[in-house]
Amino acid sequence: MVILVTTNINNDAQVSGTAIMGGTFDPVHNGHLRTAVEILDRFHYSSLKLVPCFQPVHKGRPSVTPEQRLEMTRLAISSDVRLGVDTREIQREGPSYSIDTLRDIRSEIGVSEPLIMVLGMDSFLSLPTWHDWQALIQYAHLLVVSRPGWEPDLISELSAFCENYRAGSPHELQCAPSGRVWFETLTPLGISSSMIRALARKNEAIAYLLPEPVQHYIEQHQLYR
Ligand code: ATP
Ligand code: MG
Predict the structure, then answer these.
(1) What is the pTM of this model?
(2) Where are the beta strands (DSSP E) in 14-67?
(3) Residue 194 Cα, ligand 2 centroid: separation in angstroms?
(4) What sequence ranges are listed for the domain Cytidyltransferase-like (predicted)?
């Protein structure tokens, strides 16, 4: 059983660390964005980068192009200077394995800087199906955020993983470059990209689930119809 907590590291100074959140962002929505800003406010990283994949490994091919998903992600983050986009998976092409991305970033930032991979509970629960998943923790910390509809009901492989790597406090993520898992409860937002695609397909409103510029982009390019 995993207990999720709410953190506010009592520290106004910025904390060193590279924070990233991977995803298909098909399209990016307020569940992603609110996750990013709540993590920034609570953990005090100077920035958080969204990493759109080129080709998701565990779902079908998106109906819109990687460039369109990237453009929507760019539009979404433009209102907060702390948010950024990392285009390496789209530039790399092929199946987007997180382990390749983490290795790549680690080689850029050096061995001692904390690298924090933010992921939702649904993604975390699927971790044992990821390519080379046991190695991820050698390169980064995992910051697992709550997501409505997904309970932390761990299968045995993940229980053992958590026993080995679970941090006792969020402070531990600042004290080592990688190797810790932390569970964080965020404001619950029951928004998903699949829900937005389904609404668009039915010609129903998608407003207020995602940033207005992204909504307009979808309407203008008639995506997800
Ligand atoms: P789809 O419905 O197509 O599966 P999605 O909404 O799950 O899309 P992804 O791009 O697959 O979006 O998610 C990227 C990351 O963001 C994942 O780690 C996922 O768990 C997390 N995430 C997505 N939506 C939320 C949300 N509403 N709350 C918390 N985390 C979320
Ligand atoms: Mg999903």
Answers:
(1) 0.95
(2) 18-23, 48-52
(3) 7
(4) 20-198
